[in-house]
Design goal:
By secondary structure, this protein is α+β, with helices and mostly antiparallel strands. It contains ten helices and 19 strands.
């Protein structure tokens, strides 16, 4: 209540309040800004945990892939055609694997962007991480590798080599998970459901894989796609000569594994190549895990022009790719003829 004889002006009170707010903002602007930035940044994720979840997801997805194939319950249908006119197939193996992999990762890390080759409205809120970190990961990777969740993009391929899967050429089939941080591939997991072998790598931390003892750069064996090849054979022969050995294979994951040293139990069913080349469009869920694996082993996966591939944003890589480990990647690129994948 104002003193006797004194009448408060509403305008004056309003001005006083605005001045007070201005003083408070000036005094605490720094703290407010810091808190707002922290709010916008959101949660963080431990990359070792994300690696362990990625391995578990790939294995769970692989179990579904194998089960559907063993029961002959594929129920395949076409998703349309590629630019090369090849049918893109969808099977129950793709869908069941997607559901396991996508829901497990999304439930465990709800603030992380997860991109999958398949799309399905089935939500499994019960899917949860076992909290188990494999011993070989514990031995090679330290915990506390925290990064902001918003910087992470996960790419999953619930069933790589679907065409070969329908033909029962199961050695080519893999399930894959990749973790990119700020667009760079950091974690790669490639699981082979029909041999139950899992390759993993964490760039700068460790891997359960290694390069082979030797590679040929003078007359390399080049592995290429058997179903999405485009003009790759002529391209490879122009680069390395008509006598170059060209291996046709299914699945980008399998092709990357053909470049590295596999355990003795797996080598009998695997091709061995020196270079992996692809000259048409390819999706990032096909190649991100392999890129992380090769990078962790000192290798490279680039476009045909030698450019780094950004694993954020949209799923399409239009620049083709060249992948190698244990070779001079720059020298390989210099041997390649000019080619624009967007015109082939």
């Amino acid at each position: 209540m104002a003193p006797m004889g004194v009448r408060l002006s509403p305008l004056g009170v309003a001005v006083f309040c605005l001045l007070g707010v201005g003083v408070i903002y000036h005094l605490y602007a720094g703290a407010i800004s810091t808190r707002w930035a922290a709010f916008r940044q959101g949660s963080t994720v431990d990359l070792r945990d994300l690696l362990a979840v990625s391995v578990e997801a790939a294995v769970l997805g692989g179990t579904e892939v194998k089960k559907v194939r063993d029961e002959n319950g594929l129920k395949e249908k076409s998703k349309g055609k590629t630019r090369e006119g090849v049918e893109e197939l969808l099977t129950m193996g793709d869908l069941q694997s997607h559901r396991k992999m996508f829901n497990l990762i999304s439930n465990t890390f709800p603030d992380v962007m997860v991109n999958s080759e398949e799309h399905d409205n089935t939500v499994d809120k019960v899917a949860s991480w076992s909290r188990d970190i494999p011993t070989d990961i514990l031995d090679k990777v330290e915990g506390g590798k925290e990064v902001p969740s918003q910087s992470v993009t996960v790419w999953i391929d619930p069933l790589d080599a679907t065409q070969e899967y329908t033909e029962n050429l199961v050695k080519y089939v893999t399930t894959m998970v990749c973790v990119a941080v700020d667009g760079k591939p950091v974690i790669g997991v490639i699981h082979q459901p029909f041999t139950d072998f899992t390759a993993w790598a964490f760039v700068g931390q460790g891997s359960n894989m290694s390069p082979r003892a030797s590679y040929s750069d003078s007359s390399p064996k080049v592995i290429v796609s058997r179903s999405h090849s485009g003009k790759v054979k002529g391209f490879v022969q122009d680069a390395f000569g008509n006598g170059t050995t060209i291996i046709e294979a299914g699945g980008a994951g399998y092709k990357v594994l053909s470049l590295v040293a596999m355990p003795p139990s797996e080598t009998g069913s695997m091709d061995q190549a020196d270079v992996y080349i692809h000259v048409t469009f390819i999706k990032k869920w096909d190649i991100c895990a392999g890129a992380a694996l090769l990078t962790a082993l000192g290798g490279h996966m680039t476009t045909l022009k030698g450019e780094a591939i950004d694993y954020s944003g949209g799923p399409l890589n239009k620049g083709g790719l060249v992948a190698s480990v244990g070779l001079d990647h720059k020298a390989l690129l210099e041997k390649l003829p000019n080619l624009d994948p967007e015109k082939h």
